[in-house]
């Protein structure tokens, strides 16, 4: 059974010393490191940590936010470790999944994270329904205002191509093609 440390700082000018000292004091024989933002998916040190860990080992971090980009990512990473028979410990939060109490706390985190995701979905759905009831629809605002559309139609009627008309009114040709197609369907001229 080996204690394996994982340390991460977000930028190159930050120092790992505090984490490394804490991991060493916790008995870590091997420490993997990353100098990367927590939002990045490519963290070679974390990948090495998970790959190196064997059944019976424990991965130790100084603080929970050093391991996961989000609660979901944190839970997935710990679940991946548990599937390998590897424990997890966070020194600052005093969570240890090798103990029954630590497993309980971690399962509560998972349940709370799922509850939060469900609430967000529910609020989003309710907001979309309410907006639709008021006649609003979601999505991005069109970059082509009615005035720009009229100018574009005038340019096209004067012999310019859609691409040239789009350049004159400073919009993308695809956006202009799309709105022209929508208006021709509405007008019944298509």
State the CATH topology of the largest domain: Rossmann fold
How many β-strand stretches? 5
Give the SSE string: EHEHEHEEHHHH
Count up the domains: 2
Mean pLDDT: 88
Helix content: 40-55%
Sheet with the most strands, sense and barrel status? 5 strands, mixed
End-to-end Cα distance, whole Å, is 73 Å
Radius of gyration: 27 Å
- The coarse overall form would be elongated
CATH class of the largest domain: Alpha Beta
Spatially, the strands of the biggest sheet line up as 2-1-3-4-5
Uncertain runs with pLDDT below 50, 5 residues or more?
none
The assigned CATH architecture of the largest domain is 3-Layer(aba) Sandwich
Portion in beta strands:
5-15%
Give the helix/strand class: alpha/beta
Organism: Bosea eneae
Family: Belongs to the site-specific recombinase resolvase family.
Domain Resolvase/invertase-type recombinase catalytic: 2-135
Keywords: DNA integration, DNA recombination, DNA-binding
